[in-house]
Amino acid sequence: MSSNKQVLVVDDDQAIRELLAEYLSKNNFAVITAEDGIEMDKKLLSNSPDLIVLDIMLPGDDGFVLCQRIRQTSHVPIIMLTANSDETDRVLGLEIGADDYIAKPFSPRELLARIKALLRRSQFAGEQTKTSEKARYLYFANWKLDTKKQQLMDENGRVISLSGADFQLLNLFLDNTNVPISRDQICQALHGRDAFANERGIDVHLSRLRQCLKDDAKSPKIIKTMRGAGYVFIADVREEN
Questions:
Q1: Contacting residues for 85 by C-beta, under 8 A, at least 6 apart
Q2: What is the pTM of this model?
Q3: CATH 1.10.10.10: does it fit domain 132-240?
C-alpha cells in the first residue's frame, strides 16, 4: 500500500484530533481534521480522502446522519468511533454503511492497524474489479450492478447506495453463484480476521445487503441461508460489457 494516503478525522474532541493527526502523520498518512459535520462538508469539497474516521457523538448532525450523507455519493471506507459500551451503536453504524468501528477509549496503534487493513481491502477490491474478466454490467433479479462505478441500480434506474463492504460482499456472491459461502469466508473477504465471524457484524452486513436488494430473508429470491453451510446466491446472473 502506497504511503501518504489521506485520512479525514471527524471528532469534536480537539485532543483526539491532534493525537490522531500527529500519530497518523508519523506513519506516513496525510491527515485532515474536522470538528463537526459542517467542517467535514467543507473539507470534502476540497479533498478526496481515502478513508474517514468518524465519531458518532458530534454537535449538530451526529455520525450516523453524516455516514448516511456520505454514502449517498461515495463508497469511501468509513471507520466509526463509538463511546457506547454495548453493540447498539456499532450495529447501527454497520447497517447504515460504515465499514468498521472501534470503541472509545482506543489505542492509536489499533486504529492504525484497522485503517491499514481497511485500505488494503479497499485497494484489493478495486484492483480485482479492474483486472478481472468480469463484465462491467451484471444483471440479476431486476437489478443492475455497474462494477466499474460500484453502483447498484434498480429496474427504474434508481441508484442504491452501497458501502465498500456492501460492494465487496455482493461481489463475493456474484463470483460464487450457487455455491455455499461460509461465515468464515465472508469474514475473510470483508474484515480479514476470523475472530469477527462470530460477532453480530456478519449478520448485520448480510441483513444490510438483503435490504439493499429488497430480498426477504424469510422467502429469499437472491440470497438463501443454508443451515450449517452458509449462504448461497441463487439468482441467475447475466453479463454485459
A1: 103
A2: 0.65
A3: yes
